Amino acid sequence: MTEQKIPKATAKRLPIYYRYLNILKDADKTRVSSTELSDAVKVDSATIRRDFSYFGALGKRGYGYDVESLLKFFKKILNQDKLTNAALIGVGNLGNALLNFNFHQNSNVRISAAFDVRPDLANTVQSGVPIYPMAELRKQLEDQQIKIVILTVPSSVAQDVTDEAIAGGVRGILNFTSLRLSVPKDVRVQNVDLTNELQTLIYFLDHYNDED
């Protein structure tokens, strides 16, 4: 497998390709063209071919791509062949929804621990996931060797919680708070701003829906 760095935009599209390839496999489809893939995932075929080109010759001209081979390749690229444990920090309304979901469509990822400041939640099990008091955050992350956390705490405490999580060995943060976190260079933050995404959607509906 190549060790070259790929553009962030390409990296974000890889799970989309992988998900659709699984659908094709379930439908007993053995091969797919970049045009077919483009129609399904709404990414133009030239972009798909360019994305795939970063990883060498994955397809054949006139034949397309072998579904089984692509699946095996992307499974390795995306680490789908190993289980990744994540911790949820903040079991409020959004946190509860994420616990209930717990990536059931994606069996290689699971929330294996959660943390909250409320005493009535500490040392309980919600949706099959143990809830720990926030005071145990660093210790549990270290003991369970969890490297990824999902952050759904109030913005006012987000940086302090982030600092404690990083001290516990965390290297990846899915940030649902509105705060832009300050982290070391070796820690990756993926921001999910639901309000911003909704406002962007409304803007495009208001300004582009009536165009040709």
UniProtKB/TrEMBL annotation:
Keywords: Cytoplasm, DNA-binding, NAD, Repressor, Transcription, Transcription regulation. The keyword Cytoplasm applies. It is found in: Cytoplasm. The keyword DNA damage does not apply. NAD(+) binds at residues 90-95. Pfam families: CoA_binding, Put_DNA-bind_N. Residues 16-55 bind DNA. Homodimer. Modulates transcription in response to changes in cellular NADH/NAD(+) redox state. This is Redox-sensing transcriptional repressor Rex. It comes from Secundilactobacillus folii.
